[in-house]
């Protein structure tokens, strides 16, 4: 007689985050770390700065050459420091994931039946307002698991406390609004990201440096810079890119210049 064996099903791994408050990333630091500019000793060596000044045409005002180059370098430094190294497709995918998960949370909240909502609201109020250990008013009704969760999570934020400062049902209603706002923000962000096939983060950096330099030229010299690939300005911009450690060709500069010039006249009346 053959012994019958039963096949064991897949073992479910325990959630490593169960009963544990997720560590909040330092979002402020992450957002600001690429926006701190350093002006000492400068974005490029002094000799390179002087070379850029001397390479400007003699017909330009001598008094404006150094201020122009310094303004261009300051803009370029800010652009390089805050550049996007992540591809647009990847950024869009991550933002869309936030929108998707926010929508799932809204659907789950909307599906809660009246009894579930009442119980959720009651204990949400307890979590929002009272410090650990759980208050005596609710402690006798709480399971050991609930007490353990409270002890690990601790205090809630002032935002949550404010949300539950109102009539029954107002707390979860306000939380709904916050989640829906997150979904809206994610959708708007994703809609403003337009990945272009073959475009790399560096291409957008070259374009930004060129546009800023053209703007500074118009501001300092009260006229538009030459736009053609063979013109001195496109060549000068290419040299600027090389000195900044982000080389791009005069052709790339000319393409970006034509774009910038078109932006100056939305009606499309670009003089020759």
Question: Beta-strand percentage?
Answer: under 5%
Q: What is the count of helical runs?
A: 11
* Estimated structural class: mainly alpha
Q: Termini, distance in Å?
A: 97 Å
What is the helix content? Answer: 55-70%
**Number of DSSP strands?**
0
| SSE string | HHHHHHHHHHH
> Mean pLDDT across all residues, rounded?
79
Radius of gyration: 29 Å
Q: Shape, please?
A: elongated
Flag low-confidence runs.
Answer: 132-140, 268-272
Largest sheet features: none
How would you concisely characterize the structure shown here?
The protein is an all-alpha fold and 272 residues long.
Account of the 3D structure:
With 272 residues, the protein is mainly α. Helix content is 58%, strand content 0%. The protein is built from 11 helices and no strands. Helix 3 packs antiparallel against helix 9 (201-221), helix 9 (201-221) crosses helix 11 (250-263) and helix 10 crosses helix 11 (250-263).
SSE topology sketch:
Layout: H1 27-32, H2 46-54, H3 62-81, H4 88-110, H5 114-129, H6 144-153, H7 158-163, H8 170-191, H9 201-221, H10 232-243, H11 250-263
């Amino acid at each position: 007689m053959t012994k019958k064996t039963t096949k064991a099903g897949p073992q479910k791994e325990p959630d490593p985050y169960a009963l544990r408050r997720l560590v909040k990333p330092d979002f402020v630091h992450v957002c600001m770390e690429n926006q701190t500019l350093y002006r000492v000793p400068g974005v490029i060596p002094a000799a390179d700065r002087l070379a850029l000044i001397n390479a400007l045409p003699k017909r330009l005002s001598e008094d404006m050459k150094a201020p122009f180059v310094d303004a261009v370098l300051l803009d370029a430094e800010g652009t390089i420091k805050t550049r996007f190294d992540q591809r647009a497709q990847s950024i869009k995918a991550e933002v869309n994931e936030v929108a998707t998960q926010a929508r799932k949370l809204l659907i789950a909240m909307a599906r809660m039946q009246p009894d579930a909502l009442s119980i959720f609201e009651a204990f949400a109020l307890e979590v929002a307002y009272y410090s650990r250990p759980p208050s005596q008013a609710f402690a006798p009704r709480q399971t050991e698991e609930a007490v353990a969760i409270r002890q690990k999570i601790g205090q809630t934020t002032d935002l949550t406390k404010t949300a539950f400062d109102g009539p029954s049902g107002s707390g979860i209603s306000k939380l709904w609004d916050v989640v829906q706002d997150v979904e809206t923000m994610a959708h708007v962000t994703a809609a403003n990201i337009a990945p272009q096939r073959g475009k790399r983060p560096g291409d957008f950096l070259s374009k930004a440096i060129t546009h800023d330099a053209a703007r500074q030229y118009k501001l300092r010299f009260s006229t538009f810079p030459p736009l053609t690939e063979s013109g001195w300005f496109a060549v000068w911009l290419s040299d600027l890119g090389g000195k900044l450690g982000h080389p791009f060709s005069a052709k790339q500069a000319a393409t970006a210049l034509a774009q910038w010039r078109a932006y100056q006249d939305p009606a499309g009346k670009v003089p020759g």
